[in-house]
Amino acid sequence: MKRCSFISTISVFVLVTLTVSVSAEDANPDAHLDLPSLQKLADTGDAKAECELAMRYQRGQGVPQDYAKALTIMRQSAEQGYVLAEAQLGYYYGMRLGGPRNKVEAVKWYQEAAEQGNPTAEYTLGYIYSTGSGTPKNMDLAMEWYRKAADQNIAKAQFALGMIYLYGKHPGDTNVDYAEAYKWFRKAADQGDAKAMNNVGMMYDYGYGRAKDWKEAARWYRQAAELGDAMAQGNLGTLYLDGRGVSNDMVQAYVWFKLAAEKGNGTGKMYVAEFESKQLLNPGQMAKAGQMVRDFHGTHPSL
User: Fold this and answer.
1) pTM (2 decimals)?
2) Planar angle of CA 21, 141, 202, nearest 5 degrees
């Protein structure tokens, strides 16, 4: 059978899905205040209190939910240079929360927050510059901001850096660095990022910047597959199919292909169709595989 496996492309997160948690207790002590006290403090122009009050209007926590009011109050906080408010205001404008979407304003406020070292804003700016969303595309700036966020252990930024080192800054770019790609994928994988785990596995699978090691590839694929990553599930299926790093096991191969296919993964769908059209499993094996798929769903209900 034809082996079909490939490294995952960079995750696409549109600007509006990027957010910043400003309600964490360690980030904003005003989150502990009762509403009257918070309102009184915000009325004095206290930036932290304004930020938290805006969040309460955003969530409808103790007050009627009012996105427009949240936007107004959050801007008052951000204009005083309060970094969490700046980042959240960027999210509001990107999310069309409380007013029309304004990518220029979103970029402006993410930039303000990033320049104060907010890691989520740094990552978001990296994404913005890598896609040209609201500002001209600039891969050098994208890498600069991704690296700042990656150095603060933002796994998505580490993964994004890995992808740039793996594929280059633009299509056809031959200036790649597999060692750097592996370094950043591994950092993200060690934080539990499933896509990065898959890519670490792929680098061992194909020997990109590492010596080929199919047992290591299987180990990383399995970790990502157990977290529900469809590409890793498909890749793990190919190892069982070929007996690389694991025993040759057609039932296990089908199980992982089936799980991948359920999520729309092309590799999984292709192999499931081939298994079923050619009846590569006998009825007993097919029944066993079906039970294994059901057992996986039973032990991974959120996936």
Assistant:
1) 0.87
2) 80
